[in-house]
Amino acid sequence: MISLTEIRKIFQTKNGPVTAVDGINLTINEGEIYGVIGYSGAGKSTLIRMLNMLERPSEGDVVVAGRNLSKLKPTELRKARQEIGMIFQHFNLLWSRTVRDNIAFPLEIAGVKKTERMKRVDELIKLVGLEGREESYPSQLSGGQKQRVGIARALANNPKVLLCDEATSALDPKTTDSILDLLVDINERLGLTIILITHEMHVIRKICHQVAVMEAGKIVEQGPVREVFRKPKEKMTKEFVKQITETDETVEAVDHMLADYPDGQLVQLTFVGEEAERPLITQLIRHFDVEVNIIQGKLTKIQEGSYGTLFVALTGDKEEIGKAIAFIREKEVEVEVIAHA
Ligand SMILES: Nc1ncnc2c1ncn2[C@@H]1O[C@H](COP(=O)(O)OP(=O)(O)OP(=O)(O)O)[C@@H](O)[C@H]1O
């Protein structure tokens, strides 16, 4: 659906050239929700803006739905852009227009006739759950409602792709979740391919199928969300995964356990999908001469199944503990030894 080949963006500034995106190759399949995560300045906005040529790459090709956007003439590009909707952190609504007229705007530009336009707007209002607010102005709406208008407007011309530029960063956690649910709903109902950028792992965890981690203009790690959660390789990725797994409470509990179990071995188990449901602890106790104390556990839903972390202290003979850990690893559960006695 989308492929980027050796994309580079160099901004010429008065202090010299700034490389915002530094040789990115990426393939996004149809119907996928693809998340790009990175800290501020990593180059995420520049990258997503190159997917609809709001920013022209200095080098490389951007192919969307079979068309090489880097090579299109202005009229062809305008047409291609109708297949790519976009939503923004600060909504970018027209403040002097009502909800209805904001959503109708891209249809007016595309030359859609009034009766058809009105019909389409009604469908979109229903789709995003804004019935009853048609005649309100953006200033009369909550943040979540404003983003719903942004989504409806982005979908007006039936795009194949939706780009989300930090679309929930200005929203509180509850509203964030309702907008993320709406994006999943749209993805499933319309088969829309969604690309989002964010600095929050929660967003990736909740809705993405695939994730790419960006640092200094490059993608340092990418893959299916469940795999990246199960076994993050790069330091940056580990930091992001910790946003989900290692709350302050966990760190405090682990510190306590280290003091309380001086003879034990503290391990963190990480499981995804079906592994999370297997009776692993029972098997450990049954097969090995070890004591297993559960310190803290957390099961979280990810887009495709569940993801769990469990902190346990194993006490017993050193060799027996070693065998128990090897057994866990055989079950394809990730084991990180936190501290030795
Ligand atoms: N128009 C521009 N002119 C000059 N430099 C730019 C421009 N746009 C972005 N940059 C620089 O490119 C780098 C990447 O910026 P970008 O906004 O893409 O990162 P980001 O990951 O989206 O971060 P943020 O979330 O803070 O926007 C930064 O060093 C930024 O200063």
From TrEMBL:
One of its GO terms (molecular function) is ATP hydrolysis activity. Keywords: Amino-acid transport, ATP-binding, Cell membrane, Membrane, Nucleotide-binding, Translocase, Transport. GO terms for biological process: amino acid transport. Residues 2-241 form the ABC transporter domain. SUPFAM superfamilies: ACT-like (SSF55021), P-loop containing nucleoside triphosphate hydrolases (SSF52540). The keyword Lipid biosynthesis does not apply. The keyword Transmembrane does not apply. This is Methionine ABC transporter ATP-binding protein. It comes from Halalkalibacter alkaliphilus.
